[in-house]
Amino acid sequence: MPSTPSDAVPLVAVLEEGPARRGRPPQPGLSETRREQIVSSAIEEFAERGYEATTAAQVAKRAGVGLGTVYRYFDSKREILDQVMERCLRELIDVVDAPALLEPPETLESLIARIRDLADALFGLVEDSPNVLKLLMVEASAIEDELGRRVMRGEQVLAGLVAEVLEHGILGGWLRKDLDPNAVGHSIIALTWPGLLRGLRVGQCAADRARYTDTIVALVSFGLCRPGTDGQAR
Amino acid sequence: MPSTPSDAVPLVAVLEEGPARRGRPPQPGLSETRREQIVSSAIEEFAERGYEATTAAQVAKRAGVGLGTVYRYFDSKREILDQVMERCLRELIDVVDAPALLEPPETLESLIARIRDLADALFGLVEDSPNVLKLLMVEASAIEDELGRRVMRGEQVLAGLVAEVLEHGILGGWLRKDLDPNAVGHSIIALTWPGLLRGLRVGQCAADRARYTDTIVALVSFGLCRPGTDGQAR
Amino acid sequence: MPSTPSDAVPLVAVLEEGPARRGRPPQPGLSETRREQIVSSAIEEFAERGYEATTAAQVAKRAGVGLGTVYRYFDSKREILDQVMERCLRELIDVVDAPALLEPPETLESLIARIRDLADALFGLVEDSPNVLKLLMVEASAIEDELGRRVMRGEQVLAGLVAEVLEHGILGGWLRKDLDPNAVGHSIIALTWPGLLRGLRVGQCAADRARYTDTIVALVSFGLCRPGTDGQAR
Amino acid sequence: MPSTPSDAVPLVAVLEEGPARRGRPPQPGLSETRREQIVSSAIEEFAERGYEATTAAQVAKRAGVGLGTVYRYFDSKREILDQVMERCLRELIDVVDAPALLEPPETLESLIARIRDLADALFGLVEDSPNVLKLLMVEASAIEDELGRRVMRGEQVLAGLVAEVLEHGILGGWLRKDLDPNAVGHSIIALTWPGLLRGLRVGQCAADRARYTDTIVALVSFGLCRPGTDGQAR
DNA sequence: TATGAATGAGCCTTCATTCAT
DNA sequence: TATGAATGAAGGCTCATTCAT
């Protein structure tokens, strides 16, 4: 798991494990384009209608290719979904996998700033790739155990990132020792969900985004208590 | 039913609105039993396989009735899902709709105790009604807008409860004024998700449950900062 | 076949032949009422929706009895149809089976008057028993060969009546010898169909009725030729 | 196509209106063939068993294609029926839509010859396309209002043709003025029904055909009266 | 290689018929 | 006797997948 600034890619590790990717394109360059094209169309269709309600023909049409072509590049509709989720995970990771975000903070303030940045990055997805986010958040887990687990693992990676940082802070002495880094990691990721879901449902506005970000920051800063002792953000 | 006088029946309100319940049972007692029986079977099947992947015949078989009987009591497979979700929402609400939980706290400590109780109540669902929880968390939103929205509203009710209490605390002066009660309400509910999901996936053990509960309590108590001033509960 | 005035009932003979009537009511008096009641309701439902599109439950509901009761008096939905058609044929025959109509005419004028009376009687059905007429004309033949044949036989009886009279006239010397009595009999019945169908479809008004009656009378009286002229063919 | 200048395309008009033809064939030539093939099979099956009693699978089997192929070219079983009836109407019209038949007669003799030709043309259908005729006469009206009306309109077109000619004759002074051209038009068409139905039921033989044709001609020529006499009505 | 026509297993739903009460 | 709940066979229709061109 990445913890050093020079180690910016390993997040992608989550993508390499799954048992997916049953079909392999014969020609790496040219036909990989086709796959991308089909996966892109599938993302839009699946996000719009859901996986089950989308037909392979709709995906083909959206991609501007024949139905047979889809089956030339994918063994089954299910494999398209696998690739779709892989791509979604990759986009999710790309968003987070930035050196700046991964820079380990050395103080509570910078940790909280990092969390704010993480939330910002995720909220950015609502605007930039709502379909990707929708598939990851609502569709993935409903499909099937195996796939749900893979997507879960995406969340785990994020949470793991946070957990590592927390551990770092605990070891460094500037974070409470009695916090469970893993549980807190998950919790911090979870704190972004309401804002993300709301953004997906009703559309995101700057005010909402700020409101949810501030709330996250406030909660991780000092909980619900009145500051007056300490721990404040922004 | 909520016991606060000023707070008549808001929780149950969410159940009264939906467009479900298209048919009318000819005999109140007998046929309501059948409906319950079929809905119960459907909950298990839907939770196991997902709504789309479950056939009406499977529901009938699980219920121990003929396929025709299912359609005697429900107009369509879709209406079964409506009833299933209604029942899930009701169970969710029943779990939370306890006088003790709804008692408005007057201090930060009692508020946090209430949050712990709420988390406890939800974690209890993992053991008592994992299927109900799974349907609410995983299946519902993937189905369709209208239904997803109804379930969302269930979450909103929960978050609203918390928000109300927060407002009470802000007015009472023992909570920070700059917190957005609604956003915080959602956030606190969201804090339970990682623990609930993990419980659903790998099964819940007492240690995990405590770990997640403590994390929630810790976060809402003082955030990530070192108590030195600290407000903490327990 | 009836040809004498004193022989007013044999028309009903057509009802006695068919292989229908599979079920027999246990009690002649009381339960015969039930059968009639169910058949009446079936006539309305079948006429409204067609035999195939009508469910046994609809018939039962219309009759104000339980579904089981229908099957107590009829072995199958199909048998209801048999009885329905029997009843329709009976009503058709009752309309024609009047001494006055059956009185054998002795002149062309009285023959034509008889034809006018026959047309009148049939047109009366449009107002008095449109459902009966509809079932006989549009539904019956579409169902099945056997049943269609029975209804056809009803038409044959009518045509046969006319044919007999024609033969009488030919023998009497006041009708052309080269007419085929049977074919002409059918033709005269057929002449009423357009008026009957129109009446069923758009509702009958007195003007239409007169128009069609006059046309029938005119055609059988002198064909298309101008009276005074003699039209000849072949 | 009618050759009278004042009478552009009325016959075909009946084909252009209906709400049928929902789908569009992707490839004009090839898929139109499939449609024809399926419609042809449907005509045979529907004529044999009736529309309701025929399953889509039976049509597919008869057409020698898979069930899915049927639904590739037709949205529903019902749409097949629409096309079937359209085709039947077209065949009916083609039979009558001959220049010779549409030539407006100038004398009673030629009018009657025209009627004989019309009857001949229709009786020809019994031998050439009995299924088409059966569907038009027996099945169509029983199906449903909208469709029944379309077929009715086919009959109206035929009757209208006759009516036009009659009007021509009345204006020309060689036909009685007091005949209602429309009613007589329908009546003349109706005169063919008994012969057609009998042909369909028991099979047509030359003798029957002649007998019915002669009867029609006789009736329209001079009614029932002995030529030389003039029959009068009313 | 790309296409889309062809296929049929499988699903939702209906409804005639039965039978316990 | 009357009822209506229960049943499951059967049909319309969809769509993932194949394969000839």
Describe this structure in words.
Four copies of one chain form a homotetramer. The first copy, chain A, is built from eleven helices and no strands. With 234 residues, chain A is mainly α. Chain A folds into two domains: 24-74, Arc Repressor Mutant, subunit A (Orthogonal Bundle), CATH 1.10.10; 84-225, Tetracycline Repressor, domain 2, CATH 1.10.357. In chain A, helix 2 crosses helix 3, helix 7 (108-128) packs across helix 8 and helix 9 (145-172) crosses helix 10 (181-202). Chains in contact: A-B, C-D. At the C-D interface, helix 7, helix 8, helix 9, helix 10 and helix 11 of C face helix 7, helix 8, helix 9, helix 10 and helix 11 of D. Chain D binds a DNA duplex (21 and 21 nucleotides) through residues 26-27, 30-31, 34, 55-57, 65-69, 71-72, 75-77.
Question: In terms of topology, how is this protein built?
Answer:
Four copies of one chain form a homotetramer.
Chain A: H1 13-17, H2 28-49, H3 56-63, H4 67-73, H5 77-96, H6 99-102, H7 108-128, H8 130-143, H9 145-172, H10 181-202, H11 206-222
Helix pairs in contact in A: 2-3, 2-5, 2-8, 3-4, 5-8, 5-9, 7-8, 7-10, 7-11, 8-9, 9-10, 10-11
Chain D binds a DNA duplex (21 and 21 nucleotides) through residues 26-27, 30-31, 34, 55-57, 65-69, 71-72, 75-77.
